[in-house]
Structures are given as structure tokens and as C-alpha cells.
Design brief:
single chain; mainly alpha; two-stranded antiparallel sheet
Length: 351
């Protein structure tokens, strides 16, 4: 496909900030959904921070030649829940998240070393498209219900828990994004997600204001409670900038002592994480094959599958260390690159 910005090209800084913000929007919903689903005190802020660190690690390993963002992996939700369920304390559960991510990352490291030694042809034979495709499809389709539920749930009105007007806003967002990416000017095609989201929010805001003025609960789509809670204690620097609740802070606060008293817990975590790593490996292959077709360069050859695996594996460890969630390359990010035609790794790094 025709790219507006190639992998090694760098947009102007101000423009790049906007493009980077769009990448963040593309991956943010899924990245923060994982800690929300797992619960147990995991926070969206820490998950986003971990995803950012993991992405930078990935870019370094791939020599800034693979433009994709890493985010929280949905495949490990069950593994993360098992880590908490098997822990005798919250600190041990958090430590289990880090240990589990290390186990999963080591699977990638081992495969990377094998690939480095014998090449990638055996991977293609072992996991052809007919295997990879359904595996990735199952991961995505299993989450489709969550998307519909979140779209139709009206959090601003307990009296009307389901809002079909919210579906309308979602459809407006979708179709505006599609129209801009297809028929927009060159500059607009670079930011279709931002334009689509702004249009969806604008419609939701108008409906909410009308609903508030007319006292129609069904039209109150946006809840202003989070914004109100943000400034209730006054506005300060901490209102906008605060240190996330990093995983390692809780894990190191008694986690190792609990682990010493329960050494079998390591085996429990390993069983929960290692098999899933092989499933995510299929997703890794699919993302990089898709991305290769987008940028017109085979990433399995250059920088090489061994480098993408190392970047993903070590990046996943780093992500879990800070945010608790193992990372993986995001199809949302690949889609953003494909739709916008911006494959610049400087945009990914800035995001």
C-alpha cells in the first residue's frame, strides 16, 4: 500500500504529537480494559505506563524498524486472575504477575534463540496461516461481546442502564472514521480516528446537554461525575500528574517473604502463564505478517523474527513490572498504521 510516512521517515514534531496521540487513542481502550477486568487494585495508569515502557523496549530490540505499539494482552487475563487466586496475600499476587510475565517472556526468548539459530521456515510450517488465522480470530471474537456491552451501557443513568443513543454515537464515530480515511484529504487521512472520536463525542455531548435540560434520562449519555470527582479536592499539579500505582511497589512490599513461605506458588504461576505464551506467539506472528504487508517489508527477515520476539518478550516483562499486565503487539496499532498510512517508528516511540 502507499504510505504517507515510511518507517524511517520522521514527521514534523508538532504533527507527530498529534499522530502519536492518535496511536494512544487506538490502543488505550483495550490496554486499560485488562486491569479493569482483572481488578485486584490494578490501575489503568500503571498499565498505560507499562505499555509505553514495553513499546520502547520493543523498538530498541527491533532497531526502530517495526512500527507497532505494545499493549496489555487479553490472552493473559485468566493467567493474571490465577496469579491472584493462588497467592496468599495481595503482595504475593502482584509478585506473581511479574513472575508470570517473566515466564511468558522467557518462552519468547527461547523461541527467538531457536529462530536465530535455524531460521524462520520451520515456524511457517509449524504455524501456517490456516492455524494462525483462527487462533487470532478466536481471541478477537471472544471479546466482541464486551465491546457491545460497553457501547450499550449507559453509565450516566442508573434508571436507563441500556442506551441505544450510545449505539448511535458509536456508529457515527465508526462511519466518520471510515469516510475520512477513504475520502479525506491527505492531512485528514492521517488523523481519521481523532476526527471520528471527536464527532462521536460531540454528538454524545449534545444529546447529554439536551437530556439534562429536558430531564430525559435516556439522553444523558456522558457522565460528568469523573470530571467532578477530579476537581472536588481542588486543582493542583496532582490533579493532572501523579505517580501510578506500580506493580513492583506492592509486589516488593512483603511479596518475597510470602513467596519464601509458599515456594510451590511459582509452579502455579508457571502453569498459568507458559501455555498462554504459545497462543500469544500466534498473535505475534499474525501481527507482524500483517504489518509486513502494510509497510512492504518482511519483518520476519529484517529486523528478523528473533528480534521482534525478543522485543515483545522483554517488553512484556517490563510492562508487567510496572503495570502488572503482560504486553503484546496490538492489532489496533497495526490497523492504525494501515488506515492512516503513517508507519513512522518515531510516531510509535513518541506515543
Amino acid at each position: 500500500m502507499q504510505l504517507i510516512y515510511k518507517v524511517n521517515e520522521r514527521p514534523k514534531f508538532r504533527q507527530n504529537l498529534v499522530y502519536a496521540f492518535q496511536q494512544v487513542l487506538a490502543i488505550m481502550a483495550a490496554t486499560i480494559a485488562v486491569p479493569a477486568i482483572v481488578g485486584n487494585g490494578l490501575t489503568a495508569a500503571a498499565a498505560m505506563f507499562g505499555a509505553g515502557v514495553g513499546t520502547l523496549v520493543y523498538l530498541l530490540f527491533t532497531k526502530f524498524r517495526s512500527p507497532v505499539f505494545l499493549g496489555s494482552s487479553f490472552a493473559f487475563i485468566g493467567s493474571m486472575s490465577a496469579a491472584f487466586a493462588g497467592g496468599v496475600s495481595m503482595a504475593l499476587g502482584y509478585l506473581g504477575l511479574i513472575i508470570g510475565a517473566v515466564f511468558a517472556g522467557l518462552v519468547y526468548v527461547v523461541i527467538a534463540l531457536i529462530v536465530k539459530k535455524v531460521g524462520v521456515k520451520w515456524i511457517t510450517k509449524l504455524m501456517p496461516a490456516v492455524v494462525i488465522g483462527p487462533t487470532v480470530a478466536i481471541i478477537g471474537l471472544s471479546l466482541a461481546g464486551n465491546a457491545i456491552t460497553q457501547l450499550t451501557t449507559n453509565t450516566s443513568s442508573a434508571a436507563n442502564p441500556v442506551s441505544y443513543l450510545a449505539v448511535l454515537c458509536g456508529l457515527v464515530t465508526l462511519f466518520v472514521t471510515m469516510l475520512v480515511s477513504t475520502y479525506g484529504s491527505k492531512q485528514l487521512k492521517l488523523i481519521p480516528f481523532i476526527i471520528g472520536i471527536l464527532c462521536g463525542y460531540a454528538l454524545a455531548l449534545v444529546l447529554t446537554l439536551i437530556g439534562t435540560a429536558a430531564d430525559v434520562e435516556a439522553m444523558k449519555i456522558i457522565s460528568f461525575a469523573p470530571f467532578k470527582a477530579l476537581v472536588d479536592g481542588g486543582v493542583s499539579v496532582k490533579t493532572f500528574i501523579a505517580l501510578p500505582d506500580f506493580t513492583f511497589l506492592t509486589a516488593f512490599d512483603g511479596g518475597f517473604k510470602a513467596l519464601a513461605d509458599n515456594p510451590s506458588y511459582v509452579g502455579t504461576v508457571a502453569v498459568a502463564y507458559v501455555p498462554v505464551a504459545f497462543v500469544v506467539f500466534a498473535e505475534h506472528l499474525a501481527d507482524h505478517k500483517n504489518l509486513s504487508s502494510v509497510i512492504g517489508s518482511d519483518l520476519l527477515e529484517e529486523p528478523g523474527l528473533h528480534r521482534t520476539l525478543l522485543g515483545d518478550g522483554v517488553g512484556s516483562m517490563a510492562g508487567a513490572f510496572f503495570g502488572g499486565c503482560p504486553n503484546t503487539t496490538y492489532g489496533e496499532s497495526v490497523g492504525c498504521v494501515a488506515i492512516t498510512g503513517n508507519a513512522s517508528t518515531s510516531t510509535i516511540g513518541l506515543a
